[in-house]
Automatic annotation (TrEMBL):
Pathway: Amino-acid biosynthesis; L-glutamate biosynthesis via GLT pathway; L-glutamate from 2-oxoglutarate and L-glutamine (ferredoxin route): step 1/1. One of its GO terms (molecular function) is 3 iron, 4 sulfur cluster binding. The keyword Iron-sulfur applies. Belongs to the glutamate synthase family. This is glutamate synthase (ferredoxin). It comes from Meloidogyne floridensis. It is an enzyme of class 1 (oxidoreductase).
């Protein structure tokens, strides 16, 4: 019988024998008490059952849903409200507003094609939409349309004639399950590992994000870092803002917070969002230099994350989990307006989108022969085209950038341009 995916064969030259798959795995399994090593592992369901509270409502009662959280946010932004009837009285019905009324969409580079060609097909088919081979779009550094930072990154791949892993036929060896949070020294397995949260995949629903944001289970705490800066500071405000959030992250890590949340929710007419990727890269590298990175998990709450490449770049530069809130909120509005199948529930939308992103991440990892997300996270398997040395050194240390290009002022100018258009 040939060696199949997920199986091993050991040729022991010392004992002069061949150890087959089952025997080898049994030896490894009995080499130490693995149950004791993982006894402190935490699962998301355990946290849900804890007393995690969204104002006045407990999550473990099941009262809080993705729809509830979306409506609450859209009402605060006055994007949905009550529609009066013909008699002038409030009939309690949500009124439909054109998508353009949400000015965050152009701010985060959403276009009609984003929905018709990327998001809606992904939600319905639970996979990326098919497209032609190749990309004839202008390089991000040469574009006149102020593209998001993700466009400057090109995914590397194993340059062989056949893919190293078939992510679907060899699904048995692929996994997006990954522990997040403080790590201990794996080279000393006799000590009990610190408690870590085990996530089945890195794409968070709004409910799961709230669970982690308001965590108090077993002494865990989260800290929110707002990745925005005042628009009045102009192009020169970006670097001081990055320094501020890096200092904030280091202080939170030293204060014992296990989860750091990078959020651009506070964006409005007076505040410009810092790219989630830029903020993540700066914080990730700063924590590494201060020897604090293994003490915290980094979770992204961003409106600019929407497609598979965005998720992969964030994961590749250190993100542990990502909540793309703008996708959920806008798809809810599309559904209420009749532009998306009304038979789809909010849970269907979330699950379809998550399944599509997961499938896409599998394919990207397979191109490099990587089978687990744990190996892909923080690996920086990208080539940068069009970013200057100062940006790379501060936020994407050791990544390849042969051409140079945009500096912090250029990136700030593009962000401010999108902000003014919005």
């Amino acid at each position: 019988d040939r060696l199949r995916p997920g199986r091993m064969l050991l040729v022991d030259l010392k004992e002069k024998c061949i150890v087959e798959d089952e025997q080898l795995k049994m030896q490894i399994a009995h080499s130490r008490n693995h149950k004791k090593l993982t006894i402190n592992r935490i699962y998301l369901d355990q946290i849900r059952k804890d007393d995690v509270v969204v104002p006045f409502i407990k999550l473990n009662h099941g009262a809080v849903t993705n729809e509830y959280l979306i409506k609450r946010e859209l009402k605060q932004l006055k994007l949905i409200g009550k529609r009066p009837g013909g008699d002038g009285k409030d009939h309690g019905r949500l009124r439909d507003i054109h998508l353009d009324s949400d000015r965050r969409l152009p701010l985060f580079s959403y276009t009609p094609d984003t929905f018709s060609l990327i998001l809606v097909p992904m939600i319905i088919d639970k996979k990326e939409a098919l497209g032609s081979m190749g990309n004839d779009a202008a390089l991000a550094c040469l574009s006149d349309y102020s593209p998001l930072l993700y466009s400057y990154f090109q995914q590397l791949f194993a340059q062989v004639t056949n893919p190293p892993i078939d992510p679907f036929r060899e699904q048995i060896v692929m996994s997006l399950r990954c522990p997040v949070g403080p790590e201990t020294n794996l080279l000393e397995p006799e000590f009990e590992l610190e408690s870590r949260i085990l996530l089945d995949q890195p794409v968070l629903s709004l409910v799961d994000f709230q669970v982690l944001k308001r965590i108090s289970f077993k002494g865990w705490r989260s800290y929110v870092i707002n990745i925005v800066y005042p628009a009045r500071h102009g192009q020169r405000g970006l670097v001081p803002a990055l320094d501020r959030i890096c200092s904030e992250a280091c202080s939170a890590a030293l204060d014992g917070y296990q989860i750091l949340i990078l959020s651009d929710r506070q964006v409005d007419k007076d505040y410009v969002p810092i790219s989630a990727l830029l903020a993540l890269g700066a914080i990730h590298q700063c924590l590494i230099k201060q020897r604090l990175r293994m003490k915290v998990a980094l979770i992204i709450e961003s409106g600019e994350v929407k497609q598979v490449h965005d998720f992969c770049v964030l994961l590749g530069y250190g993100a542990d989990a990502i909540c793309p809130y703008m996708v959920y909120e806008t798809c809810y509005r599309l559904r209420t307006m009749g532009l998306l199948d009304k038979n789809l529930t909010d849970d269907d939308v979330v699950q379809g989108y998550k399944a599509g992103i997961e499938r896409g991440i599998y394919k990207v990892m397979a191109k490099m022969g990587i089978s687990t997300l744990h190996s892909y996270k923080g690996a920086q398997i990208f080539e940068i085209v069009g970013l200057g040395r100062e940006v790379v050194d501060k936020c994407f240390t050791n990544s390849v950038s042969r051409l140079g290009g945009a500096n912090f002022e250029t990136l700030a100018m593009e962000a401010i341009r999108r902000h003014r258009i919005a």
